[in-house]
Amino acid sequence: MEEQHSKDNSIYPEIVAQEIEAIQNHAASNDVGLFELQTANDAIKEAASMPDPVYLFDCLIQEGEMVICFADTGLGKTVLCMQAAIHIAQQGYKVLFLDLELSKKQFQKRYTSDNGAAYKMPETLYRIGYSRMRRAPKDISYTGFFLQSLSALIDCTGAQVVFIDNLTKLAAGDTDTAKATIPILEGLNDLKAERGITIVAIEHNKKVDTTRPIQLNDLQGSKMKANLVDSVFTIGRSATDKYLRYVKQVKVRDGELRYDLENVALYQLVKDDYLRFELIGYGNEFEHLKNLTEKDTTARKEEARVLREQGVSNREIGRRMGVSEGAVRKWFKT
Question: What gap in Å lies between CA 224 and CA 101, rounded to an integer?
């Protein structure tokens, strides 16, 4: 065993030497081991020849990306994402909506008006539900069977955009662990790259302090998931009106960051032809947060104390809690 290990390691210097020689000889290929080598000027020139981003739904969903939409229960994640799916399908795209939340009857009622008229969906929009009696074959994992089935659906429909509602149910309620989340997201990323499709996954958030701005860290299992996707946006509830929602981007890779702390998109929930978000304006997120009570302040100071005992810096505590580093220092002085 040790002899074999030593033999395998002995080839690495030879490989490195070959790569170095390739660079020195200005080899035609710019691939060096794990990396792609370019001058900064060449990188800019290549990027300039690439097409500009194509937005499928406002600036929230960009073509060819893996996107996550997250929010607390009952804020309208499914409503907004189905609205996006309808809009995208109306533009001529073939769209799959994997619905693990609503029964067919619930879906029918949501898209039927008060006078009993069913909303006419685009013919290129497909709703996908679980086949209740099907189980994964013994020789394949649940994740593998899911990805295999989704791939077959993409093949038979020619789908270009896929919505998944939601990751929690897809991973059997265990998406806070790397074991459950990473294989699914990695498999979806492989599908995205192989088929050139867009994927939007819906997810829950951690327990949110409604007195502070929503952050990427509030995404359930954020450190694992955020690194594996291109863009993330969230939905918050306005403290000024229970029917108001605001949308904020918390991660953008290649697209436009339009909705941030100082400029969130404001919506009201309406039902005419179907239940949907109606844009009514823009505002600062702080205008829609709950005012701090003395009890809230005490709870936040306690949370900060616990984080500090865990070795978290004042700056990081402030970032996580949506306050300045100076405010954190004052908490510890009182």
Answer: 23
- Cα distance between residue 87 and residue 106, in whole Å: 21
Q: Cβ(100)–Cβ(130) under 8 Å?
A: yes
Report the candidate in 263, 270, 264 with the shortest Cα–Cα distance to residue 236. Answer: 264
Q: Is 142 exposed, middle or buried (0-12, 13-18, 19+ CB in 10 A)?
A: middle
In whole angstroms, give the CA distance from residue 218 to residue 331. 22
pTM for the full predicted model: 0.78
- The whole-angstrom separation of Cα 267 and Cα 93 is 25
Q: Which positions ≥6 away from 251 have C-beta within 8 Å?
A: 216, 226, 229, 230, 231, 232
Per residue in 109-155, pLDDT tens? 999 988 889 999 999 999 998 775 567 678 888 888 889 999 999 99
HSE-CB for 253 with a 13 A CA cutoff: 16
In this structure, whether the domain defined by 55-288 belongs to CATH 3.40.50.300 is answered with yes
pLDDT tens-digit readout, 275-312 = 899 999 999 999 999 876 777 778 878 888 888 889 98
Whole-number pLDDT of residue 284: 95
Q: Which two tokens stand for residue 161?
A: 């955009």
How does residue 194 score in pLDDT terms, banded at 50, 70 and 90? very high
The domain locations on the chain are 2-48, 55-288, 294-333
